[in-house]
């Protein structure tokens, strides 16, 4: 339930590499969080049922956030989206922030409307959440208010498999091809290889 970011990634890495976690009832959602996969509502619902009341505490929105969330214009061709102006509980916020980070690993960019659909938020509320995470250094992206578009920035090195994996700073010598899409493809291959290695380790447990 901690805020999505590097600190939570390191903690999830430590938990997932502990063989005992495979026996937990919430292991599936734990591993999906570690692998940065988008969480589905049905999975979150099952996890929610296992939490204690204080872990489902309600959170209040600031007046500025409420104003920003409702100050939204439906664009021609936009599909109807949620009218929610923000997360209602601590769990709700954690899942939305996680899915936003997962989205940044899949897409190069996304519209406010598209992100709102993914997070079940009004487009302006989704933009507000992304902006806050960018300001806090937990999301690498830029926001184009005119085009109503969020563009995700690629990382120069694979922090998710280095620092988040508990390995500290890892310096990789790579050839500079000058092609951002090639670099992103290479990073995806490294991430997939790491995920396969992790899955093999879990299979050996059984």
Q: What does this 3D model show about the protein?
A:
This protein is mainly alpha-helical and 206 residues long. It has one domain: Arc Repressor Mutant, subunit A (Orthogonal Bundle). Helices cover 48% and strands 5% of the residues. The protein contains 8 helices and 3 strands. It has a 3-stranded antiparallel beta sheet. A hairpin with a 4-residue loop joins strand 2 (141-144) and strand 3. Helix 1 packs across helix 2 and helix 6 packs across helix 7 (123-135). Residues 157-178 have low confidence and may be disordered.
Give the total of beta strands: 3
Number of helices: 8
Mean pLDDT: 75
CATH hierarchy class name = Mainly Alpha
CATH homolog superfamily? Winged helix-like DNA-binding domain superfamily/Winged helix DNA-binding domain
Low-confidence stretches: 157-178
Helix content: 40-55%
Domains (count)? 1
Structural class call reads mainly alpha
Q: Walk across the major sheet and give the strand order.
A: 1-3-2
Instruction: Enter the CATH topology name.
Output: Arc Repressor Mutant, subunit A
Order of helices and strands: HHHHHEHHEEH
The CATH level-2 architecture is identified as: Orthogonal Bundle
Strand content: 5-15%
Distance between the termini: 29 Å
Instruction: Write down the overall geometry.
Output: globular
Radius of gyration: 18 Å
